[in-house]
Q: What sequence folds into this?
């Protein structure tokens, strides 16, 4: 049976596995929508599509994932440093390759990210002066750990 949802449908933004409820419902400044679509059974660590709706000029800090990632811009623009992506443009990263910071355009930006594993969709890898650390952002503790690591990295680079 096929399922159909529109990003304009409030139900679209209520799609996520129960273990990510805290992450999705956590108010994140600048994130105006977050949805997760698992492409298989959770127990199999399936590929996962994450829809991220970013407010105007919101910055996604530099980080990596331990899986392959394919991102498609569907609304707005996204400054990725080397160029500005517009609807239909894509970006790909291999496991462990850091990307960012990415900055949403003045009109905001919505992307669909396809992760080769579900775990890779919510566990980020952040480089710090002490080395790379893993942050499970599905928990408040993991989110705080990531924010602190990114702040330490920015301070070390004189950007904070």
A:
């Amino acid at each position: 049976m096929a399922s159909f949802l529109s990003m304009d449908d409030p139900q679209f933004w209520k799609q996520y596995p129960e273990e990510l409820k805290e992450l999705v419902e956590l108010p994140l400044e600048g994130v105006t929508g977050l949805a997760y679509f698992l492409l298989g059974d959770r127990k199999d660590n399936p590929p996962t599509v994450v829809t991220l709706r970013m407010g105007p000029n919101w910055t996604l800090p530099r980080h990596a994932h331990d899986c392959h990632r394919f991102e498609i811009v569907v609304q707005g623009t996204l400054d990725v440093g080397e160029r500005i992506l517009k609807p239909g443009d894509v970006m790909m990263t291999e496991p462990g390759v850091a990307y960012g910071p990415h900055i949403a355009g003045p009109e905001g930006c919505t992307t669909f990210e396809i992760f080769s594993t579900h775990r890779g969709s919510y566990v980020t890898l952040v480089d710090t002066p002490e080395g790379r650390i893993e942050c499970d952002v599905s928990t408040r503790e993991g989110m705080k750990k990531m924010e602190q690591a990114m702040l330490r990295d920015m301070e070390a680079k004189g950007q904070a």
User: Anything to note?
Assistant: Residues 18-118 form a domain with the Jelly Rolls fold (CATH 2.60.120.10). The first helix runs from residue 21 to 25.
